[in-house]
């Protein structure tokens, strides 16, 4: 990756090229350099850049196998998490097996529940109980001791990272137009940003200096409101990165996006020119009030990209399903066609179609299919995967012993037949 950056006293962009960032053997910086050279050769060096309108410019979507694979790798983990969540939400954290079987379609579970339990041992204990006092006993599922231990670990990790969670909540509110978000919508995206299940009930009341609940959660008319503006939270990831690079290089660096085109990707000339000019626009913080700006201006386009960049940066996996982002269109002033941003700026984002769901991903957060920009709350996922792997190992060991027993029995039968 490289940074398209510019010091305040130098016109030419400063860049650090890294392999894999070539566009037909020429980088975006190459075109920026040619643009500056061309302007310098004119008699009037004060000509302003005029960025073409974006309505007629289109970028063809191109599949990124590595980033699709990053989503595919988490498929089993997310499936298990959905089933666990379903059981945890039941009274007493137990459910009749046949009830869970009826919910397979909603859970996107394409195998029978008993098959799922056999493939993922260690999550639940199976026992018999009555649904009604005089009914026959049926199979129930309840949380296993291993899963209870994980849930305690999850609480510990959330407590250790509570300042991070509070800052995320404040940042989401600070970027919104009215500094208020629907509590129910935030509950819906809690997994995306790493908020604990009880964050509205237990966490928010502990920080009255920052956050306040208005209304009653669960009734559709409750909101989370920002009480006070904390300057420590108003610095975006891009601005923090520019400051760090300035300290490292000793040169004042202008905040800007990383632009990383996938291998083999080619932009048409008119789009290449638009990207070149667009990248030269000043970066606007997603926390800055721009309500007076023209919604169709290139500057507003860049600010919108900055909002999406910040939202994805705050998410756990640096990716969020597009329909979930769409739920906040009013709060963040997204246009009806906001999803086109992810294909138009394909050097910053990738829109995966894996699993039949559009998912916006932040390119710079990944190296091939590995997430390199790891959120501290990802430790929860790591612990859950360890729990799953323990169960898979136990299952594999049981299968091996069964095969050995069958082989031994067959050998003994063969000996008896010979006798």
From TrEMBL:
Residues 389-416 form a coiled coil. Keywords: Coiled coil. InterPro entries: PORR_domain, PORR_fam. GO terms for molecular function: RNA binding. Pfam families: PORR. The keyword Coiled coil applies. Signal peptide: none annotated. The keyword rRNA-binding does not apply. Residues 63-392 form the PORR domain. This is PORR domain-containing protein. It comes from Rhamnella rubrinervis.
């Amino acid at each position: 990756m490289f940074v398209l950056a510019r010091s305040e006293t130098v016109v030419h962009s400063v860049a650090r090229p890294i392999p894999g960032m070539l566009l037909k053997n020429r980088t975006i910086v190459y075109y920026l350099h040619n643009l500056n050279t061309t302007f310098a050769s004119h008699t009037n060096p004060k000509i302003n850049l005029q960025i073409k309108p974006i309505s007629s410019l289109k970028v063809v979507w191109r599949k990124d196998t590595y980033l699709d694979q990053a989503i595919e790798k988490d498929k089993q983990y997310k499936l298990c998490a959905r089933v666990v969540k379903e059981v945890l939400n039941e009274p007493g954290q137990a459910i009749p097996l046949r009830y869970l079987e009826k919910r397979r379609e909603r859970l996107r579970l394409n195998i029978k529940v008993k098959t799922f339990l056999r493939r993922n041992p260690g999550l639940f204990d199976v026992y018999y109980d009555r649904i009604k006092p005089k009914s026959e006993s049926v199979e129930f599922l309840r949380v296993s001791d291993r899963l209870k231990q994980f849930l305690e670990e999850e609480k510990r990790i959330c407590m250790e990272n509570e300042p991070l969670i509070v800052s995320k909540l404040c940042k989401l509110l600070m970027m919104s137009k009215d500094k208020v978000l629907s509590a129910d919508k935030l509950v819906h995206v809690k997994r995306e940003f790493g908020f604990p299940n009880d964050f509205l009930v237990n966490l928010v009341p502990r920080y009255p200096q920052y956050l306040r609940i208005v209304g009653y959660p669960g009734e559709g008319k409750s909101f989370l409101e920002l009480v006070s503006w904390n300057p420590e939270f108003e610095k975006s990831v891009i601005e923090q990165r520019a400051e760090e690079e300035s300290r490292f290089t000793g040169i004042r660096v202008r905040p800007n996006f990383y632009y990383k085109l996938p291998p083999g990707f080619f932009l048409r000339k008119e789009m290449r020119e638009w990207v070149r000019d667009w990248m030269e626009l000043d970066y606007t913080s997603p926390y800055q009030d721009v309500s007076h700006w023209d919604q169709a201006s290139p500057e507003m386009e860049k600010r919108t990209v900055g909002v999406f960049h910040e939202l994805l940066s705050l998410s756990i996996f640096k990716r969020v399903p597009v329909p979930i982002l769409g739920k906040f269109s009013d709060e963040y002033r997204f246009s009806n066609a906001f999803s086109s941003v992810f294909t138009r700026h394909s050097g910053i984002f990738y829109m995966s179609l894996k699993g039949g769901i559009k998912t916006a991903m932040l390119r710079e957060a990944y190296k091939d299919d590995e997430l390199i920009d790891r959120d501290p709350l990802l430790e929860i996922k790591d612990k859950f995967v360890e729990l799953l792997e323990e169960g898979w190992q136990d299952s594999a060991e049981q299968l091996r012993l069964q095969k050995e027993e069958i082989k031994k029995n067959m050998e003994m039968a063969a000996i008896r037949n010979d006798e």
